[in-house]
Amino acid sequence: MAASSSRSRQAPFLAAVVLILAALPVGWFVFLREPPAPPQPPTPMDAGTVQPVQVKRVDLELSTFEGTVEVRHGEKGEWVPAEKGMALRPTDAVRTGDGSYAVLVNGETFEVRMDAGTAVSVEELTTSLSRLLLDNGSATATVRGGKRHSFELTAKNGNAKASTSSGTFTMSNNGAGTVSVGTREGEVELRGEGKVVIVRPGQQSIVRPGQAPSEPAPVPTSILLKVNWPAEVLPQRELIVIGHTDPGNQVEVNGAMVTADETGRFERKVALAEGSNDVQVRARGVGGGVGKDQAKVTVKVPPVKPPPVKPVIEVNPKALWEKTSGGAPL
């Protein structure tokens, strides 16, 4: 009876021991085992697939152009005639001649239309930032929203920088520090001399040498253009056209680009032909407005008088001899 009672008391103990030993593997698996590393995505070779073809990305290209347009690859490269679809990278530059234009395209992110007599240099091209330098002339940038990308246009020989992530604006630069910015769509941030202004649609701001941007003002409804025309008849075959327009405007005289100074004064020598000549002057603002003036100038060059004719003195040697010697020579 005593042995039976002892075995009955040991049975629960043994059962508990068995349960503990059985639970040890489960506890180790649940609490102590390190989790397996996540599966790595298969490489093209592991997956047995063909490696994708690498497509060459063109960050900026010369999409279209007309007239005389030249491209320079690198800061020390030579200017060569442009070709449609030319790829442009940092340190490259594009310039347009009189009566010409060019359009630079960066996929669906932005495009820049260069007017006649304009030079643009590429400074930086990334997925988040594009920076171009306006050496001189006038350019219109259209930046499309919806992409995490900022576009900057800086004026050379000045301290003005315009930037936007969505919008359309025009910047002009006379190459000597006078810059004008006009916005058509979106908002443009214009910086200069530590000051920042926001140029909204229908507004423009002007930056003069060594000065901060002016407060944005509505784009003028008319373009100021005054020309000091000479007399209708000129005695020479050339004319110096002198005039005045709003600072920052682009000026053409008979199709040739003219640089206006910080006050808007411009001057251009024009070759004329004998007779009647049509001389045309055109001014264009960053807001898109255009002013025109023209005159008809007649050239009448006075006839050149021939030099006076010196009298011809004829000498008769025989008569002269007789007169001086008293007789004819033997």
TrEMBL record:
Q: Which domain of life is it from?
A: Bacteria
The cross-references to InterPro entries, in alphabetical order and at most eight, read: FecR, Ig-like_fold
| Residue ranges annotated for the FecR protein domain, each copy included | 92-189
Region entry Disordered, spans: 159-180
- The name this protein goes by in its record: FecR protein domain-containing protein
